[in-house]
Design a protein that fits this description.
By secondary structure, the protein is of the alpha+beta class. The protein contains 13 helices and five strands. Helix content is 65%, strand content 10%.
Length: 368
């Protein structure tokens, strides 16, 4: 009983087909209508039962297969029509079902060829068995438009499903890109701010025994930096953060001063495209963080100018930590910086000239 219940509760057709396949079964009326006028004999009843046991698996199974396997279901349904043709002209409906099943063949030329074969079988059966015109005309007139419509609808449905899969793929890639963007931004934000907080905390610890007031000021700066970082992290996660280059210069000066590094800024006045300004600001932040952490520098120069139609940004420290470019470790910060620059059609270059020089150049129209 449980097995029977499970069979009847199983989805007999794919969900996207809706209730249409069940409605089409009403066409079987044309096959059984003669038995409403004259009751079938014992042999006919047996044949009807066997036909039902064969037809329904062929009918519902055709919705779950595709490609060449569909051919077997089409030919099986045609076979039912051929076997019943001498006894019941209403069996022409089986050829209509067979024509509709041709839609399961995914390549349209093959599906149309299979429909033509079904119609040829109807014609050949009519000639060999001397069946009346009403038999083959009803089959051809109904099976042709039903088959053509089913094949075309199936092609449209496959195209729609392919587009949906492509859309899902694009959405998935966009999600990955957004995660990478947030990861890069959080790295740049937190790396810089935490370095500043660590330096100021160390300075406050040294001052607490000598100058309490100065120590309180450092602790206050730590609190402000933490609050500022929190607001920037929230903005980065929501995707609306735009960093101003001028404000980033001020922040860089404070961070470097805390590490006893002098900042010399030579910034040409210009109107930067928002995307370029954002990338330059993040690059400045990441570079300053690296100077504080790794450079062992006492002086850092930042320059921004227009050269030969290019927006050129340089940051040059006098540190001794790097002797040659090959010694630079390509971490998340530098990788994220390079990806942002590449996205705007810019170029990132690293040089070692009495310290490390970072150079970014962008076309004038980049990010506009």
């Amino acid at each position: 009983m449980q097995e029977l219940k499970r069979i009847f509760s199983w989805p007999w057709v794919p969900a996207y087909q809706g209730k249409g396949p069940y409605v089409w079964l009403l066409m079987l009326y044309f096959f059984v209508r003669q038995y409403f006028q004259a009751a079938p004999g014992g042999i006919e009843i047996l044949m009807l039962v066997l036909t039902a046991l064969v037809f329904f698996p062929l009918y519902f199974g055709a919705y779950w297969v595709s490609g060449l396997r569909t051919v077997l279901f089409v030919l099986g349904t045609c076979m039912l029509g051929l076997l019943w043709a001498p006894y019941n002209y209403g069996c022409s409906i089986f050829f209509v079902y067979a024509g509709a099943q041709c839609a399961g063949i995914q390549r349209a030329p093959y599906a149309y060829a299979m429909l033509a074969l079904v119609l040829a079988i109807v014609g050949l059966d009519s000639v060999l068995n001397h069946l009346p015109e009403a038999f083959w005309m009803s089959a051809v007139i109904v099976a042709t438009p039903v088959g053509l419509a089913s094949i075309m609808y199936s092609g449209i449905a496959r195209t729609r499903n392919a587009l949906l899969r492509k859309q899902e793929e694009v959405q998935h890639m966009a999600t990955i890109a957004e995660r990478e963007r947030i990861s890069r931004d959080l790295h740049d934000l937190l790396g810089h701010t935490l370095s500043l907080i660590a330096i100021k905390a160390e300075l406050a610890g040294k001052l607490i025994g000598r100058d309490l007031e100065a120590s309180k000021n450092e602790i206050k700066d730590i609190e402000n930096a933490a609050r500022h970082a929190l607001s920037e992290v929230r903005a980065a996660v929501t995707g609306y953060r735009q960093v101003g280059f001028a404000s980033e210069i001020i922040s860089a000066r404070a961070c470097l001063a805390a590490a006893q590094v002098e900042l010399v800024a030579d910034v040409q006045e210009m109107k930067l495209p928002p995307a370029v300004e954002n990338v330059l600001s993040l690059a400045l932040r990441e570079a300053v963080t690296n100077v504080v952490r790794h450079a062992c520098a006492t002086r850092c120069k930042v320059a921004l100018s227009v050269e030969s139609g290019l927006i050129v940004f340089r940051l040059h420290d006098n540190g001794t930590a790097v002797r040659k470019v090959e010694d630079i470790r390509q971490g998340n910060g530098l990788t994220g910086m390079r990806e942002r620059v590449d996205a705007l059609g810019g170029v990132l270059a690293l040089k070692v000239e009495r310290g490390l020089m970072l150079e970014l150049s962008f076309p004038m129209g980049a990010g506009a």
